Amino acid sequence: MKITALDHVTVSIPVRPFAQGGISPYRGARDPKGTSHAVSTLFKVTTASGAVGWGEMSPFLAPSIMTAVVEDYLKPRVIGRDLFRLSEIMADFDPLYTPHLNTRVLAAGLEMALWDAIGRETRRPIADFFGGRRRDTIAVAWCFGITGRQETVEFLARARDAGVGCVKTKAGADIDADLKRADWLAHAAGGSVAVRVDMNQNQSLADALRYVRGIEGMGFQFIEQPIAVNDPKGLRSLRYRGTTPIAINEDAYVPQQLLRLHQADAFDVAVLDLDHGGGLLSVARQAALAEEARIPLVQHCGWDLGIKVAAILQLSAALPVFSYEMDSTYFAHADDVLSKPLASDGGAFRVPEGPGLGVQVDEAKVERYRVA
Question: What is the per-residue pLDDT across 349-362, written as a single tens digit (0 to 9) for each?
Fold first, then answer.
């Protein structure tokens, strides 16, 4: 089946303010102003039979640059190709002359759209192409940014009341403030809600060690990427100087890094992302390695709308090595580009059951939220 068209559009959907049950402005160590909109680039693939597939990725490049990537880099390598030779298509985006870079990242949203189109052509959900569904629901971790004491306590109570068993928050801007807030988090969680903390590489090794020792006994689920990437000795040092598990995230975006850090005995958990991993195929390969090495995995969130969340659910349903709750901000978005929001059951998403991603895109909403 030939691919006849590839289109893309960047959309921006408001995130509800904290006072209205949302998480805006969502502040992190590297974003003190805070995020108030979920921005995604959407991809639409059309086949000769008229089947349409949708994909989504976080636009880490400006919309004008993404347009150039699509027109000059993706389209010439996709239009006219056989949809069912997806592996062959994606191999064209391998970093032949830049092995230190994951250039498949630029095609991650496209690859998702190809999978959706394949599922619609064959009338099978994407999970079936990765071994078949083994779970019908995927537990979720509600994400929120750096907040004051009252908001921190309020958010934990809100999550608990909604049946959510895990939350993820940010830290790393100020070690003294981080330690003080860790105490608020531990008391508010009360042992009934798991807490994971993401540093976004913003701690020095000395401050990260101080944090690891300062939260000893608080029972946090893990500390995510406390120090900069490419420091296996530093990560290993943190891992063996405390009992709180150490997770990698940005380190997992570097080609072959998951294997290298595992060999260095440098982490306990890996947080993977479909975008930065280079698509479902690449992340599935990482997952296979992790399963062999008995490394538990987490699905990362980059302000994902329903298209990408559906892809995460399809892959996670087939690969139980994603054993930790998936990160998500979806609960706080004011709207979505789907005709019907993703279904949730307490603290878990229900895996969509239709063909492909299992969701329907509302193109009127896509136009409504289009970024000029």
Answer: 999 999 999 999 99
